[in-house]
Amino acid sequence: MTPTPIDLSFSLTVQKRSGEPLLRCYFCQKCSAGCPVAYAMDYKPAQVIRLVQLGRKETVLSSSAIWLCVGCEACGTRCPNHIRLAPMFDTLRYMALEEGYKPDPMVYALHRSFLDSIRLWGRVHELSMLMEYKLRSRDLFSDLGMGVGLILKGKISFIPERIRGLADIRRLYSERREESAHPSAEEAQR
Amino acid sequence: MKYTYYPGCTIGTTAVEFGLSTDAICEALGVELVELEDWNCCGASSAHSLDHELALRLPARNIALAQEAGLDIVAPCPACYQHVLQADMELRQNEVWRREMEALLGFTYTGRPRARHLLEVLTEPEVLERIRQKVTRPLTGLKVASYYGCVLVRPPEFTGWDDPEHPMRMDVLMEALGAEPVPWSYKVDCCGASLSLSRSAVVVTLSTRLAKEAQEAGADVIACACGMCQINLDTRQALEQKIPVLYFTELMGVALGLPQAKKWFGKHMVDPTPVLGKFLASG
User: Fold this and answer.
1) pLDDT attached to residue B45
2) How far is A73 from chain B (nearest CA, A)?
């Protein structure tokens, strides 16, 4: 087995970008204990923090854990060191994408389709968003029954609602400051 | 009592009964909701999952639109509420970013409108008093498990209007309606939220556990305050004997004797009529 390379700057980078004091963690594992999705993760939340502290960048950025966190904030609310893990998981996903690690295909497909829908209409249009998700994830047939059920209940609309201020939305998506894509995480750290 | 109303994307679709019941009870209680003109999606889970900057920018536009009216922004969806709160905090604290957003969206930030959740607003003491006076069909004997979900009361640094581990405002509201709130340990446990489609097995596990625990606590129905919680619990509880999952606003509508309530029930996957039919006003 080849040893996983260690990146000594990793913990500081994640700490800085997320604005969360990750080095304070003393591994009480309260976060893992209360996490509703920990059972499905390859590394539990406390293990992810520890791996970050140890500079195990590759292990962390290729883990399934970073794509399973739903941001329910149970961990952050309970942490005795006041570390919110949700922004850490967000940061780890951004870094994984930027550095070319493969995201969880289903989770990524859903978020991408969702953001595309907002860019297109200004609001989410479920039906077309779900169609894009199905194509992106290549998971065409799951939940069809539920979808039909919701359509029969009149809970899925066929026609999207398009907002008038779409030009605003386009600007929000595209006009970024070049020096930093995430200024606020850095601001928070100052 | 007048607010800027930010309904959010689910209110016209998968959470249509949440929207209809909110409109109806607010009218009955004299709480005026003025819909935010041309609002956009807050970005929900997807924006912060992939793009931090976008997750702050999308709600910033809604805040910009709400500046002129100057009224507090009320959202029925906890995710919308949470994201407006976060963007507002960023506008308040990060001057560089605020200037950038003001230039990009052409507005001046006054900091006056605050983001509030519908449950918070409807459980203010004076509104509770109005509710107590207007209940015509008290939900006597109905046992309710109040389910707050995740980001409605968390993180407490942002929300702060109820206990993040053991919130009580919905329980107090249920009591005001004549119902009996049951104590249970899963009030703030997440339903799996946005994993609903991409990891449905996780959501089935979590929603089934929530539904089962509510039943074991003796509840007849679960009351919730989120479109995502409701649809996950309503469609993904894998139990033989299913428990109806209602928006707290629907239960308010029933207790206030609003005849429209019957129509809202028709939108549910698990039909609440066997449990709640006896409380419905005819018409």
Assistant:
1) 94
2) 6
pTM: 0.94
CB < 8 Å to B268, chain A: 153
| Contact residues on chain A for B107, CB-CB shorter than 8 A | none
Last residue of a domain, one of A102, A137, A153: A102
A157 closest CB neighbour out of B12, B151, B193: B12
Q: If one looks up domain B137-279 in CATH, what number appears?
A: 3.40.50.11810
What is the C-alpha separation between B140 and A185, in angstroms, rounded?
50
Which parts of chain A register pLDDT below 50?
180-190
Overall size of chain B counted in residues: 283
> What CATH number was assigned to the domain covering residues B2-118?
1.20.1050.140
Domain that holds residue A154: 105-175
Residue A133: count of CB within 10 angstroms of its CB: 22
The C-alpha of B178 sits at a distance from chain A's nearest C-alpha, in angstroms, of 30
Residue A34: give its domain's CATH number: 1.10.1060.10
Q: What is the DSSP string of A81-128?
A: T---HHHHHHHHHHHHHHTTPPPPHHHHHHHHHHHHHHHHHSS--HHH
pLDDT tens digits, one per residue of B223-281: 999 999 999 999 999 999 999 999 999 999 999 999 999 999 999 999 999 999 999 97
Contact B169, B123 (CB under 8 A): yes
A54 and A26: one domain?
A: yes
Q: Please state the φ and ψ torsions of residue A78, each to the nearest 5 degrees.
A: -100, -15
Instruction: Label residue A148 exposed, middle or buried (CB < 10 Å: 0-12, 13-18, 19+).
Output: exposed
- Which of A140, A156, A172 has the most B C-beta neighbours within 10 Å, making it the best mutation to test the interface with B? A172
Residue A181 maps to a domain: no
Residue B193 to residue A70, Cβ atoms within 8 A: yes
Q: Cβ contact (<8 Å) for A177 and B104? A: no
CA B125 to CA B85: how far, in whole Å? Answer: 23
pLDDT confidence of residue A184:
42
- pLDDT, position A178: 60
The residue behind tokens 């309606």 is B177
Tell me what pLDDT residue A34 has: 96
